[in-house]
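Field guide to reading this record: the first block holds the primary sequence, the second block holds the structure written as discrete tokens, and the final block holds curator observations. Each block starts with its own label. This record concerns Peroxidase, catalogued under organism Triticum aestivum.

BLOCK 1 — SEQUENCE
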Amino acid sequence: MASSSLSVVLLLCLASAVSAQLSSTYYDKSCPSALSKIQAGVAAAVASDRRMAASLLRLHFHDCFVQGCDASVLLNETSVGGNERGAFGNVGSLRGFAVIEQIKKDVEAVCKKPYSNNGPVVSCADILAVAARDSVVALGGPSWEVKLGRRDSTTASVAQANQDLPPPFLDVAGLNASFAGKGFSLTEMVALSGAHTIGMAQCQNFRGRLYNEPNINTTYATKLKLNCPTSGGNTNLAPLDDDTATPPNPDLFNNDFFINLQSEKGLLHSDQVLYNATAPAGATEGIVNGFASSQAAFFSAFASAMVKMANLSPLTGSQGQVRTVCSIPN
Ligand code: HEM
Ligand SMILES: *[C@@H]1O[C@H](CO)[C@@H](O)[C@H](O)[C@H]1NC(C)=O
Ligand SMILES: *[C@@H]1O[C@H](CO)[C@@H](O)[C@H](O)[C@H]1NC(C)=O
Ligand SMILES: *[C@@H]1O[C@H](CO)[C@@H](O)[C@H](O)[C@H]1NC(C)=O
Ligand SMILES: *[C@@H]1O[C@H](CO)[C@@H](O)[C@H](O)[C@H]1NC(C)=O
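BLOCK 2 — STRUCTURE
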């Protein structure tokens, strides 16, 4: 008994070792208002553009999957090793850079002396992680605790971004491999895909599915084709989730994404592959059914997978730096 509870303690220690240097109280002395400033910045941005919540969530994902959560995605000059903003999944697509820069300014303005005498206090990587959480909460989704103390990279890698960000033409095996490469299980991958309950995608990213794939709901496809013709209109937008809420509220963070997959209303190829309505007994169908029938199960799985994502290889201690401006190294 004593030895088995000791090994449980040991296991828990090992499990948390990755994030051991991040802490929920990291800015309590140096910048106690940081979290409320970030939340206020997200609230203001979302009030004027509800889609911004989705854009900020995606920014954090695209940060963490490339070199870890180090704000490398925000750098905008090639002298740092590459401009990730120019990578395949990012260029002409990522949004929210100006919102993050504004939040960064507002946050630094309230940090405490003497800490702030030595330069900026709150990292861009931490701002991304907190803003992603606050964005989900702002649209009615689950909350989770964000550990803090990440530092910002001085480098970025467009090559690694092209390699590590999953493209929408992947099947389950490819999606699973991409997420397994970052330590995520199949269930966590499906839960994280549920982020597509909010936000928009461009016609060029779903045209192939819309016109060539048989497993798309006819009513849904007819509606989508109006704004996504066979040629032209590449950047025309459609909601990632054909929300079923009444009154229609396509920007609500809920589990409708999974319910829609069951009736073949996934917008992206990489979303619909999670559910084959003809043969719903594959590896991911059961997971989709679980999240479709229980929003609580989805919220809980999503929140813990987001905690895991936010802890992907952070720079801590004296590694990296805390940037003054998020788009350029100091
Ligand atoms: C499973 C693999 C994934 C693929 C293949 C994928 C692919 C895409 C694509 C193609 C778009 C549309 C981009 C555009 O047309 O401009 C998109 C949007 C989005 N993705 Fe993903 N994604 C994946 C996973 C995730 C994850 C894990 C998250 C966050 C946890 C996420 C959050 C979002 C959000 C919120 C949007 C909407 C952004 C906006 O409206 O500005 N995605 N994704
Ligand atoms: C980098 O920033 C400049 C100036 O703000 C902007 O014109 C350019 O489009 C940005 N590049 C990328 C790839 O985002
Ligand atoms: C997902 O990846 C893991 C780890 O590589 C593998 O064991 C599992 O069989 C894969 N599952 C599917 C459905 O591809
Ligand atoms: C397709 O979508 C319509 C409208 O949302 C829905 O009534 C219908 O049941 C769906 N069809 C299938 C086969 O799931
Ligand atoms: C769904 O499963 C059926 C039966 O195994 C198969 O014939 C069909 O190709 C699958 N659909 C897709 C889109 O993979």
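BLOCK 3 — OBSERVATIONS
Residues 172-173, 176, 180, 186, 283 surround 2-acetamido-2-deoxy-beta-D-glucopyranose (ligand 3) (CB under 6 Å).
Confidence is low (pLDDT under 50) at residues 1-18.
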